[in-house]
Amino acid sequence: MSEPDDLLSDAEREALATVTAPAAEPQKVLIVDDNLVAREALASYLKGKGIKCVTAENAERALACLKGERKIGVLITDLRMGPVDGLELIRRIRESENAALPIIIVSGDADVPDAIAAMHLSVVDFLLKPIDLDKLVGLVRKELGLG
Q1: Cα 139 to Cα 104: distance, rounded to the nearest angstrom
Q2: Which of 33, 111, 112, 135 is disulfide-compatible with 39, CB 3.0–4.6 A?
Q3: How far is the C-alpha of 134 from the C-alpha of 34, rounded, in Å?
Q4: Reading across the β-sheet that carries 103-107, which strands appear in turn?
Q5: Residue 30's closest CA among 22, 41, 39?
């Protein structure tokens, strides 16, 4: 029995090698924080690192964005938001069609039970504010497959 490579002539192999698939549109990061300054500052920083971002000011807007925007590859959320907090947002995502979405929590006001609850919801990481921006960029790049 011949090998699968034997099915193609050398000319066909060369022709296939020159064909490239169109580049996939880069995935985006959804940043959820009820603090406008924090949300926009983080989006601006990530955009400066070549990472596309969209933002939402609360859990409801984030869920709507996830339904309408198919290119979200990572979610970064604050914990303390109202009326739906970050942990409830993550619970809702984990019960949705986006259940496998990588999620990173950033919080300036968290305690051990919050961190434990977050880890039970399979988050990528839990970063305390002030955020180690290099670590955050590394996590986002890894989750988006950017190296």
Answers
A1: 8
A2: 33
A3: 23
A4: 53-56, 28-32, 72-78, 103-107, 125-128
A5: 39
Contact between 86 and 105 (Cβ < 8 Å): yes
List the helix and strand counts (H, then E) for the chain.
Answer: 6, 5
**Under 8 Å between Cβ of 59 and 99:** no
Q: What is the dihedral of CA 145, 127, 116, 61, to 10 degrees?
A: -70
Token couple for 76: 């970064």
- At residue 15, the 3 state secondary structure works out as helix
Under DSSP, is residue 55 helix (H, G, I), strand (E, B) or coil?
strand
Give me the phi and psi of 78, to 5 degrees please: -80, 160
Please tell me the pTM assigned to this model: 0.81
Q: Express each pLDDT in 10-35 by its tens digit.
A: 777 776 666 655 556 679 999 999 99
Quote the CA–CA distance of 32 and 20 in Å, as a whole number. Answer: 36
Tokens representing 103 are: 């999620």
